[in-house]
Amino acid sequence: MSTWNNNREQETEEDTPYVGNLDDIDHIEADAQDNKAFNKLSKKANWEQKMIHDLAFASIKEQRTKRRWGNFFKFVMLLYIGVIIALVIYPLDSDLEVLNKNHTALINVEGVIASDSAASADKIVSSLRDAFKDEKTKGVILRMNTPGGSPVQSGYINDEVYRLKKKYPDIPVYAVISDVCASGGYYIAAAADEIYADKASIVGSIGVIMNGFGFVDAMKTLGISRRLYTSGEHKAFLDPFSPQNEAEVKHINSTLKNVHEQFIAVVKKGRGDKLGNDPNLFSGYFWTGEKAIELGLVDKLGSSSYVAREIIGEEKIKEFSHEDDILERFSKKLGAGVSAILLEVFSPSSLEIR
């Protein structure tokens, strides 16, 4: 009986619903709401972190892409510059077939003949040596287009032509005049086996000139006095700010005459019996190519291509002219222009053969 009652009591306790305190229920509901808010904040925080992570990753990826493309373009630019430099140092021949065939060598003598010009002895002599050393060269053309210049530079080139002709007797040398071949230009051309020109080319001007300015009267007008100190009686002769001295003028005329005689001797050596007897031949006059034939200064009319094709017999032309590279041209234009003007105005007169 007692056992049944105990069981009954247990069942009653288990079946009776729990009735707690209202404060406890409020706490439970508040905890549930806090959990929901926390979960919501957690999700929001996770989303923000994910967005920051994605943005950072995208930025890094973009930087890597930019860096790769930047390196690529740098490489392409360096490659381009390298090709340009290579082409400047080792220029390609405009006609690649010439490299493996017999050809006519062409060397340009253009502009004023001076130590710092494209027609300097260093450049022309180097070109001549390269042309003669080439086993495929069957003839050399000096294409002349120069008003003249330094007698020293012209003399160097003239001497080298004779030396190379003696060393390579089977390679003929021809001078072909385009627009003008005067003074020092003709000094060089005289060493050629034959000289060709156009009927309207300017040829000759076999003479020597030295010029300058005198500022003595201008200084008197302006009230300027010259203060000049020298060691040597004639050390300052040709000074443009001092009066001319008769003895010094006589001396310089003697020097010019001596250089002129050297010039005449070079022309006679090169042209020989071809020269005419015109008394003005060495007076400094110049003539057309057509008239120059009559005077014996030119052999025939013809162009470079004509000489290569009809005289040498090798129509293919390979140029051996040495030219300044880009940096040399820029530096010369940047600094030498002003220096040349100042030197021309204020330095002693320069000597040229004209």
Count of DSSP-assigned helices: 10
Architecture per CATH nomenclature, i.e. the level-2 architecture of the largest domain: Alpha-Beta Complex
Radius of gyration: 46 Å
Shape: flat
- Secondary structure: helix percent: 40-55%
Write a structural description.
This protein has 354 residues and is of the alpha/beta class. It folds into two domains: 41-90; 96-209 and 249-353, 2-enoyl-CoA Hydratase, Chain A, domain 1 (Alpha-Beta Complex). It is built from ten helices and ten strands. It has helices at residues 2-15, 22-89, 121-133, 151-167, 184-189, 216-222, 246-271, 289-295, 304-312, 326-346; strands at 103-110, 137-146, 173-182, 194-197, 202-204, 208-210, 286-288, 300-301, 317-319, 351-353. β1, α3 (121-133) and β2 (137-146) form a beta-alpha-beta unit. The N and C termini lie far apart (156 Å).
